[in-house]
Here is the input.
Amino acid sequence: MSRTDTRTESLTSTGTGGVGESPLRPDGTLKVRGEFAYSSDLWHEDMLWGATLRSPHPYARIRSIDVGPALTVPGVHVVLTHEDVPGENRYGLEHADQPVLAVDVVRYQGEPVAIVAADDPETARRAAARVRVDYEVLEPVTDAEAALADGAPVLHPDHPGGNLVRQVRIRFGDPAPTAPVVVSGEYTVGMQDQAFLGPESGMAVPAEDGGIDLYVATQWLHADQRQVCLALGLAPDKVRLHLAGVGGAFGAREDLSMQVHASLLALRTGKPVKIVYGREESFFGHVHRHPAVLRYEHGATRDGELVYVQAEIILDGGAYASTTAAVTGNAATLGAGPYRVPNVHIDCTGVYTNNPPCGAMRGFGAVQACFAYESQMDKLAEALGISPVEVRVRNALEQGSVMPTGQVVDSAAPVAELLERVRDRPLPPERGGPLDLRELPGGVSNTTHGEGVVRGVGYGVGVKNVGFSEGFDDYSTARVRLEVTAGEPVASVHTAAAEVGQGLVTLQAQIARTELGVARVVILPADTSVGSAGSTSASRQSYVTGGAVRAACEAVREAVLARVPGAAGLAGAAVVSASGEVLADLVEVLGEDVVERTVEWRHRPTEALDPATGRAFAHVQYAFAAHRAVVDVDTELGLVRVVELACAQDVGRAMNPDAVVGQIQGGSVQGLGLAVMEEIQVVDGVVRNASFTDYLIPTVLDTPPMPVEVLEYADPHAPYGLRGVGEPPTLSSTPAIVAAIRAATGRALTRAPVRPEHIVDG
Amino acid sequence: MRVNLEINGEQHTADDVWPGESLLYVLRERLGLPGAKNACEQGECGSCTVYLDGTPVCACLVAAGQAEGRSVRTVEGLGGEDRLDPVQDAFVRTGAVQCGFCTPGLVIAAHDLVHRNPHASDAEIREALAGNLCRCTGYEKILDAVRLAASTVAGERA
Ligand code: FES
Ligand code: FES
Here is the structure.
């Protein structure tokens, strides 16, 4: 019987397909055959299963923990608590404020308290449930603004600033501007879940040197490694991470989940330990998108030119900081949107509460701001009596415009063109013809035959930063090797970059093929035996790891070309001159040699924000997308059917056109989810819908046709001119859909997601 | 208890199965067939879809004991040694696979549809796939894959 084990496989990409083409994914065949080893598929001789006991309370003091009853369960090997954490019992991406296992207090429902290793998962879970924890339940702090009020319980007593994680101030232009046309509004964004399909999972295998090999689905192997080392009290060479197959990420795998827990259990028992979260546990096992309250005021001339934007944004970071500080920075610096605004005043605040911890999710702070500023632009259009596209185009950011941070936009910013392109597309046909329930809101539930159904059209456009910002040393490492194997030149690429589904493995092969002129490229498994690639987030891997792979290929190429006089390049497995003439066969030039280079590659540096004004060259690149949404709304029942969701996006250079479109469509649908269905319901700090039965993500029936137009205005600062792709479509799709529902219903709709009662009751 | 079942044409036996165990758990953890996925184990996502006596089911909702003596076909059993089934091939070709966690379930659901109805309309395809969640693709390329697979199957029959 064949079993998947912990070996991670190299992927081989053969044939043609360089930069700008769409070769097939090298992992595609494994995935369609069910043979790709995801982190939940790992298996090891003699392995144990881990389970986690979590707090049922959002805020409580722990008086005592008794593991005795769990230890008596047959099949249990060990039960561990905070006392068994050998290193620092604290971790975190930006602030180490989160215990590996709770000590004397729990700050959110779902916080890990104890872990169990047993012979099988059911035994482990049952044993965990038998750990006796004596809690003194405390009144949770569940409102972000109340958390900042005087007298609110301080959730992290050793954190300076009480419950304030970070406040960012943007001060740009005239501090007291006035304008003849003023619109204002308060907007709310609910807590969205990344809802990747592959649950948090992995396996820790104890090694003979006293260290550990950890096979895990993550977004950033080296950030995990750093935190796991601290918690275990082990040096980095003793904690080796290997990327197991990742079933989607979307930000939810930036923070640790089971990494330290599995390692602790494995080191203690001396056996491999596997942990796989169930779907309910997954909702507690990762951070979510920050819920936000956003108060905006826009002032404009009677001609519709923006005079000022004032905003107050409050982000509920939940119990632990995670990436709240960076999310706050993004919401603030991008808070005025893709517009030229001479005067901007924004206060953006990230807060600790006893709600579920929030951190990275696709769009990272820019999503919440975009919903608010785009809702405001629609309001402004209405006040001015001009069209929503017109008001946006009149104020559209362009190359050379200045952001509210003072940063000049120094590459293409085709905001107006993106809007015009989605506007000028033909509209989908009106409903008509024979009745087909499937084309109506409510579908085959047969809730309407068209009566009360109104169509609406809405627009949205957004701006997202690409890469890590605010002075972060953002780099990636690539090791590229060129050698002859079986009579053919073969390039291998080794990075620690996490392939999470986006197609980075395909792209790496394309780059190697383009730069080295070979057909066969091997992508080695990602692990920590090569330098950090940084995170698979912030739409950055094509840019930064792509840049590193290209730079390493260039270094290899230079070494090869030095061997042939007059050589200028590699193409078609040959060394060629500047005019393309074949000078030598690459196989002969290489002979038995292996040419290998490792390069650490950085994008140009960014700067920290000025604490008083937010002035800085804060972001390395901006990316833009625009949507037009067409919806049918059953105004009597409040049901919405999105009829079409068109997107135009500038990607600088479409490195892999098919993959680019796939990213745009997938991102657009996550925005659709936030617009009309997705919200983690939290009541008094307790999650009410931790399942796919109650937390609904779009099915194929909820998803409309999504025509995509891809623009390619090269960014001269970026490798190949590319622009990050993954996040921008998630920003503008939400406000476009909500605007379309407003257009259909006349309702104000200040909240995402829109619920039926908002439509019916206003 | 002991469960005997035929999987992808071969006879298998699983021992020490608990009454509460699902067919999915037996396939993945006892029989070394992790192709069917475990995204929810609540019958909501379709990632665990397998054929049971020729009908697609959520393996997470089938008690292992219910499968006694029956025949199961999983994604691992669709293609040949070096050959993809046309549905699998279409998923690769159209870019319908990103993270791929939804793929095994969708491949089975699509395989069932295109063999029942190789001339399915878009509305029929959507209906047939409504029980399979995908978080990455936005479904457009999955629809492309099913259309391509359907035309291949229709061509083979013509
Ligand atoms: S795992 Fe069976 S339906 Fe989700
Ligand atoms: S490809 Fe990731 S869930 Fe479908």
The CA atoms of residues 24 and 59 of chain B lie 5 Å apart. Chain B has a mean pLDDT of 97. The domain at 86-157 of chain B is CATH 1.10.150.120 (DNA polymerase; domain 1).
